[in-house]
Design goal:
6 strands, alpha+beta
């Protein structure tokens, strides 16, 4: 299994259970270096049989996004995770890279407040697709449709999937 996506690259690879093995390895390292132990695998690599960009998404639940203990950041930095300059409400993004060129990311960590709306939405989406084969197939079709026209544009790719993602998340509250 090779993880890694270059800046603004959009590519899908076939599902592999090795993604879960890698999550468990990273999770055990995070548990050793950070007191916050609320860690979940999210994103397409967490969905069984789903083709995905070869980058692992991990959500880490913290108590207060406005007051994250510096020990959390230093612990993650010791594991190779660097804070990105991505501005998102109620979320801090960190990434791990293949090397010092910082061109190819292998992992994302999403720091969010434990069991806030964002945490619940991200984990619900994963769980719903893991338990619903039709939804998995539909989501894969959306992803492949984007790739028919482009293999770049991460933001555009995310926007392209947004309608489907919102449709699934809406089921959480209905």
């Amino acid at each position: 299994m090779k993880l890694g996506v270059k800046k603004d690259e959009v590519k899908l690879v076939d599902y592999t259970p090795e993604w879960n093995e890698e999550l468990n390895r990273v999770k055990s390292n995070i548990n050793l270096n950070i007191e916050e132990n609320r860690i979940e695998h999210i994103g397409s690599t967490a969905i069984k049989d789903m083709s995905a960009k070869p980058i692992l998404d991990i959500i880490v639940g913290i108590d207060d996004i406005q007051n994250v203990d510096e020990a959390v950041f230093s612990g993650l930095k010791n594991l190779g995770f660097l804070r990105l300059r991505v501005e998102r409400p109620n979320e801090i993004i960190l990434a791990k890279f293949t090397d010092k060129t910082y061109e190819e990311k292998t992992h994302y960590i999403h720091l969010v407040e434990f069991h806030n709306e964002l945490w619940d939405n991200l984990t619900f989406f994963r769980d719903y697709l893991n338990h619903n084969e039709d939804a998995r197939k539909e989501y894969l079709e959306v992803k492949l449709e984007y790739l028919k026209n482009s293999t770049t544009g991460v933001n555009e790719y995310t926007d392209y999937k947004e309608e489907f993602v919102k449709k699934i998340i809406k089921k959480r509250t209905s």
